[in-house]
Amino acid sequence: MTTIKNIAEILGLAAIIITASCIKEDEIDYTPEREAAIISRYVDSLITEGYDVDTTANGVFYTMVDEGDGGPTVQPGDSIGIVYMGFFPESGDIFDSSEYHYYEGGDGVWKYTFKSMDLIPGFDEAVSLLSEEAEGLFLIPSSQAYGSEGSWDGSIPPYSPLVFDIKLVKIYE
């Protein structure tokens, strides 16, 4: 009798575990409306903190944290070094950083030829606004990032605006 009771208890616990594992936690509906709300809240927070926020013709919102040396901005074909961090505006979670990848000399600077790689359009546009030693915060809408499909590996969901903090360390000769 105890064996049947033990089996019944085990089956009952198994049913609870199986049922609990099928419940989806706060499934997020990635929509253009959600994206618009995230962008609005983030831009409003920057303005509240005293930043001047501008917008490019392609819809990239930005504020310059440091104007740099005031020299010329980056041009296609320039050899440059940048330090960047990318994060989600709604959570602050970092999804990428130059320090994760580029340790030449231990400085975390990504050195590359501008416009020689297939990067998201909003990132290229952000970098093009920088002069040497300038740093900016750039809110890139999904239309200038990974769009309605998200990234190929699923790390960036559909309709996700992205924020990049980018500093142009150097334009190399």
List keywords for this structure.
173 residues; alpha+beta; Chitinase A, domain 3; 24% strand
Question: What does this protein look like?
Answer:
The chain is α+β, with helices and mostly antiparallel strands. The chain has one domain: Roll (Chitinase A, domain 3), CATH 3.10.50.40. 29% of the residues lie in helices and 24% in strands. The chain contains 4 helices and 7 strands. The protein has helices at residues 2-22, 32-48, 98-101, 121-128; strands at residues 54-55, 61-66, 79-87, 94-97, 110-113, 135-140, 162-172. Strands 1, 2, 3, 4, 5, 6 and 7 form a 7-stranded antiparallel beta sheet that branches. Strand 1 (54-55) and strand 2 form a beta hairpin. It is globular and about 50 Å long. The termini are far apart. Mean pLDDT is 87; it is low at 11-25.
Task: Give me the number of helical elements.
Answer: 4
Q: Number of domains in the coordinates?
A: 1
Instruction: Give the rounded overall mean pLDDT.
Output: 87
- In percent terms, what proportion of residues is strand? 15-25%
What is the general shape? globular
* Strand element count: 7
Give a short account of the largest sheet: 7 strands, antiparallel
Q: Gap between N and C termini, in Å? A: 86 Å
H and E order? HHEEEEHEHEE
Radius of gyration: 23 Å
Q: What is the SS-derived class?
A: alpha+beta
- What fold name goes in the CATH topology slot? Chitinase A, domain 3
CATH architecture: Roll
Low-confidence stretches: 11-25
Identify the CATH class: Alpha Beta
How much helix, percentage-wise, in residues?
25-40%
